[in-house]
Amino acid sequence: MKIKKIIIFILTLLLAVVLAYFSFDTVTQVEQPDKTKLNVHFIDVGQADCMLITTPDDKTMLIDAGNNADGDDVVNYIKKQGIDTIDVLIGTHPHEDHIGGMDDVIKNFNIGKFYMPRAANNTKTFEDVLDAAQEKGLKITAGKAGMNIGLSDSVNAEILAPNSETYKDLNNYSIVVKLTYKQDSFLFMGDAEKQSENEILDKGYDISTDVLKIGHHGSSTSTSENFLKAVSPNDTVICVGKGNDYGHPHKETMKLLKDYGLTVYRTDECGTIIATSDGNGITFNVKPGDYKYHSK
Q1: Per-domain residue ranges for the chain?
Q2: Taking a C-beta distance cutoff of 8 angstroms, is the pair 294, 55 a contact?
Q3: CB atoms < 10 A from the CB of 136, how many?
Q4: Quick one: 124 exposed, middle or buried, by C-beta within 10 A (0-12, 13-18, 19+)?
Q5: Tens place of pLDDT for every residue, the chain, 296 residues?
Q6: 34-284 — its CATH code?
């Protein structure tokens, strides 16, 4: 009887080891996608934005870096990809939920080009980013519409906004980036609101895009119907935190996405989302979310 119990114990232990192995292997595959392709990581940092882009020719771009409390997690996530250099760093605008972890990123990686809009914010978070850049000897380039970032030989990155020099709302200073790899494209809206969207439309930029990162966490202040029609995406991504205090994503936005039959991926439901492109088609590492909206 005692031998039988020992055998059962050993078999149980072996089963646990096997399950743990496959669980670890799955996580590894999710966190380290095919590096011969374009990969866009929409990192789950709660009610904040953070996107890591890796190109087939081994270039990297980081758009935003989450809240202050997310700095270590963002740094660790990037390091797990085997990355020690961020070729292009973009702080879309000086709100804490976009640049909070950026000082940690600057301190922990080699940084190539660094873009932020010509907008200031009287906060310690903003000062921390400026101090980190100064200590590293980094020049901050004022990002504005019409700039070509020159990310890599294979992937084109163009700034489509801001298109004005002064705004009442810091959100509209958001650097908007369109990324193009062969036949595939991504549009990253930061927190740009309808005023900035209208300026982009008025400029006549080619904004047709396969994947649209919805502006301002799904707020009704962004993603007008005219803008969505012009972008005409196949898939959308919303970076948003569970049970957030802002009621994001808003009912109006989710209804619009549903009416247009668009696939929605959400970090509050999907966790970290990785979109992978071979230049002629985009796949995702997770299943889509749904159209439910958040009520305060």
Answers
A1: 1-31, 34-284
A2: no
A3: 14
A4: exposed
A5: 555 555 555 555 555 444 444 433 333 334 567 878 999 999 999 999 999 999 999 999 999 999 999 999 999 999 999 999 999 999 999 999 999 999 999 999 999 999 999 999 999 999 999 999 999 999 999 999 999 998 999 999 999 999 999 999 999 999 999 999 999 999 999 999 999 999 999 999 999 999 999 999 999 999 999 999 999 999 999 999 999 999 999 999 999 999 999 999 999 999 999 999 999 999 999 999 877 775 44
A6: 3.60.15.10
